[in-house]
Write a structure and sequence with these properties.
The protein is about 70% helix and about 0% strand. By secondary structure, it is mainly alpha-helical. Keywords: Cell membrane, Membrane, Transmembrane, Transmembrane helix.
Length: about 325
């Protein structure tokens, strides 16, 4: 078992496009729950809406990259409006129920055979990144061990994480962000000051949803295919794991949480595979090892919640939700 190679592959996950996508989506959840108190259990739905909005406009309408990107953002904003209008005036648990159901509805709708010509059904839509790759400014060659295209995917994904992370940091230190934190802590007190709580919640829901749509883009482009199986409920709960690992009410927390999550997953999987390969775990198959790694990550998360519930970068004071 080559521990050096195992460690190298795990460290490679730190800058992978998938990790960047998780960081973006978890940052959106931080806007929703960490800063606004909105309990969104359907972030995978926003990711799917963004990915399919981009893919369908690229394939069926032949939109260039930037126009398809706008379509994805607008689709996520409309999806947030549809979820928020009937629920944001009610208790937080109604939003949780609606979002988790809506995400599953989106996944089942794009899977139906009736829409095969539009969504590709279970096979999804492929061939969506050609126009994006035309924007690649890096000539053919080796860039830190990555090909030109692979390096471009990483630069694009982490560039978005950097830009949007700074944007969230600035927003949450503005008067608008302070109102959001006030809503999270005591909604009635903010309402008594004459603030339109409903409008602030809707704005936060839209912003976090757009982050999810952009995450769908970063997640999809390297794979060059959009498939409904990638946007199941477990996707959202992995994002919540990233958020809790790093810290809910921070900007850096979701990003570092996503990195920790994927490094730990890679390490546990490769170590288990290596032990199986040398016969140290004869009672375990590679399929079972793939499931066991999630159990180990779950145990680690439980221990984190017991000994450091605020996450790596979180502040205990920020957990004082009403």
């Amino acid at each position: 078992m080559d521990f050096g190679q195992i460690l190298l592959e795990a460290l490679g996950e730190l800058v992978s496009p998938t990790t960047a996508a998780y960081a973006l989506a978890a940052l959106g959840l931080a806007v929703h729950f960490g800063y606004s108190g909105l309990l969104n259990f359907g972030q995978a739905g926003f990711i799917a809406v963004g990915a399919y909005g981009f893919a369908m406009s690229t394939i069926h309408l032949q939109f260039p990259f930037w126009l398809a990107l706008i379509v994805a953002i607008v689709a996520a904003a409309i999806f947030a409006l549809l979820l928020g209008i009937p629920t944001l005036r009610l208790r937080a648990d109604y939003l949780a129920i609606v979002t988790i159901a809506a995400a599953e509805i989106i996944r089942y709708v794009v899977t139906t055979n009736t829409l095969t010509d539009v969504t590709g059904s279970a096979n999804g839509l492929a061939g969506i990144r050609a126009d994006f790759l035309r924007l690649n400014p890096f000539p053919e060659g080796d860039y830190l061990g990555y090909s030109s295209n692979d390096f471009f995917f990483r630069v694009f994904g982490w560039g978005l994480v950097l830009i949007l992370g700074i944007a969230v940091w600035l927003l949450m230190r503005s008067p608008w962000g302070r109102v959001l934190k006030g809503i999270r802590e005591d909604e009635m007190a903010v309402r008594s000051l004459g603030k339109n709580v409903y409008a602030y919640k809707m704005q936060a829901l839209i912003i976090g949803g757009v982050f999810g749509a952009l995450a769908g883009l970063v997640f999809t482009l390297p794979r060059d295919v959009v498939q409904p199986a990638n946007y199941g409920t477990e996707f959202t709960f992995f994002l919540w794991t990233c958020l809790l690992l790093g810290g809910m009410s921070t900007v850096l927390g979701p990003i570092v949480g996503a990195m920790i999550f994927w490094v730990v997953l890679s390490l546990t999987q490769n170590v288990l595979y290596g032990l199986i390969g040398i016969g140290a775990l004869p009672f375990l198959s590679t399929t079972q090892a793939g499931q066991l790694r999630y159990i180990l990550v779950g145990v680690a998360l439980m221990l984190l919640m017991i000994f450091r519930p605020q996450g790596v970068f979180g502040n205990k004071k920020e957990l004082a939700f009403s």
